[in-house]
Amino acid sequence: MNFIEELTWRGMIHQMMPGTEELLDKEQVAAYVGFDPTADSLHIGHLCSIMILRHFQRCGHKPIALVGGATGMIGDPSGKSQERNLLSEVALQHNVECIKKQLSKFLDFDSDASNHAELVNNYDWMKDMTFLEFSRDIGKHITVNYMMAKDSVKKRLSGESRDGLSFTEFTYQLLQGYDFLHLHKEKNCRLQMGGADQWGNITTGAELIRRITGQECFALTCPLITKSDGTKFGKTEGGNIWLNPEYTSPYKFYQFWLNVSDEDAERYIKIFTNIEKDECMQLIEEHKAAPHLRLLQKRLAKDVTIMVHSKEDYESALEASNILFGNNQESERNIKDINENMLLTVFEGVPQFHFPRTLLSENIEVAEFLTEKCNIFFSKSEARKMIQGGGVMINKEKWYDHHRSFTEDDLIDNRYIVMQRGKKNYYLLIAD
Predict the structure, then answer these.
(1) Residue 169: is its pLDDT beyond 80?
(2) Using only C-alpha atoms, what is the Rg of the chain?
(3) Cα 155 off chain centre by
(4) What secondary structure, in 3-state letters, does the chain show?
(5) Nearest Cα residue to 185 out of 30, 408, 2, 362
(6) Fewer beta carbons under 10 A from the terminal one: N or C of the chain?
(7) Can you give the pLDDT at residue 210?
(8) Which of 115-129, 141-155, 160-174, 320-334 has the lowest mean pLDDT?
(9) Is 236 known to be catalytic?
(10) Are 47 and 236 in contact (CB under 8 A)?
């Protein structure tokens, strides 16, 4: 596989230094991508960079994942309007360990192949370096004029930020440049890759290597991913979509990809999966012929969920989705099999109504129950009318009889009742 051709058809190249493709065609190359450990989990905003390393390894080259335990203490000004809060060494070390574990799901670190992936932490080579050593050995090779010309610096100094730019953050590009120099010397790393906002920092590293060693190194960036409506990719009303299942459940993760627009699905299926070109193009054509089937979204959600979590997590998310939102008799039979954790995950954020369990033995008509005990309807007449018209579903079953009562047998996991009013309004009734 040709790495540049692979990234090109996938739409994953933003900028590339001349000579990069020629180098990759000539020999096996070591390249690195840096990850900032400001949290103890990566999120899907990191996935494009991760996939670049994954494709790089698939094409026979050697990927290096750098976790910035040292530079994370500084904060990168690129694309930011404010300086970051600095983390303690203990917090950073915890974050580094968590990120290492996540990256190991995408890259082969353990094989005997010559292109097995490596994980490095720049804290290891920066922790013992003094300020005087850095100024003497590194700082003298890059002029302030060169550093000031970077867009990330100019934007912060042009009035876009009230606080300006601290010396700490100003030095960030030089520290990142030193990472590139160190990896070039120690691991023959010839290429640094990253997001489009990292172009200035990456080229500073290549220039530092040229001035100190006289050797040529290269840079490649991927585009910053956005949604078709121009909003930020990976952000929802609830915040980031994390790779850690404790922060974003596999079900919510699966649903995020399942619900992307047709236009976004066509781009994302190329960027975030390993599907080969011919199959990918065929999927896109099949989707265009029958967009209502949402073939792209379903395949995208499946492949990314399995890659980030597991096949079992995907199958559980798919089953829960089919049971809770499917329109068939299978949904009615199987909804009782959903456990509490999955149910609460699926219905997080929907209105919840608690009621005393003793009410289940009082033979209260459902119309009265949903009006006076749970306040879902304004009046019993409104409830009766909607129930008789087939607009109310209890545990995925339509109830037409407004005289019918809830019993212990209606409880899911011995505590919950899923009530649906119309097509989209869900409620969770909880017996206490």
Answers:
(1) no
(2) 27
(3) 27
(4) CCHHHHHHHCCCCCEECCCHHHHHHHCCCEEEEEECCCCCCCEHHHHHHHHHHHHHHHCCCEEEEEECCCHHHCCCCCCCCCCCCCCCHHHHHHHHHHHHHHHCCCCCCCCCCCCCCEEEECHHHHCCCCHHHHHHHCHHHCCHHHHHCCHHHHHHHCCCCCCCCCHHHHCHHHHHHHHHHHHHHHHCEEEEEEEHHHHHHHHHHHHHHHHHHCCCCEEEEECCCECCCCCECCEECCEECECCCCCCCHHHHHHHHHCCCHHHHHHHHHHCCCCCHHHHHHHHHHHHHCHHHCHHHHHHHHHHHHHHCCHHHHHHHHHHHHHHHCCCHHHHHHHHHCCHHHHHHHCCCCCEEEECHHHHHCCCEHHHHHHHHCCCCCCHHHHHHHHHCCCEEECCEECCCCCCECCHHHCECCCEEEEEECCCEEEEEEEC
(5) 30
(6) C
(7) 95
(8) 320-334
(9) yes
(10) no
Question: Residue 395 — left, alpha, or beta (φ > 0 → left; ψ -120 to 50 → alpha)?
Answer: left
- Between CA 229 and CA 226 the distance in angstroms is 8
For the record, the structure tokens of 67 come out as: 């976790």
Task: Verify whether residue 46 is a known catalytic residue.
Answer: yes
Structure tokens at 167: 């010396």
Paired residues of 148 in beta bridges:
none
pLDDT, tens digit (0-9, with 9 covering 90-100), for 252-299: 899 999 999 999 999 999 999 999 999 999 999 999 999 999 999 999
pLDDT in tens, 311-336: 999 988 888 887 777 665 555 557 77
Largest CA distance in the chain: 86
φ and ψ at 56, to 5 degrees?
-60, -45
Active site residue 38: yes
Please tell me which residue in 71, 102, 173, 176 is annotated as part of the active site: 176
Question: Out of 101, 232, 311, 354, which one is annotated catalytic?
Answer: 232
Catalytic residue check, 43: yes
Known catalytic residue at 402? no
- Model pLDDT for residues 62-105, shown as the tens digit of each residue: 999 999 888 776 665 555 545 455 677 788 888 888 998 899 89
Question: Is 84 marked active-site?
Answer: yes
- Identify the CA nearest to 409 among candidates 335, 317, 351: 335
Q: Which residue, chain included where needed, has tokens 């920092």? A: 201
Catalytic-role residue among 143, 215, 236, 329: 236
For residue 161, is pLDDT > 70? no
Average pLDDT over the chain reads 88
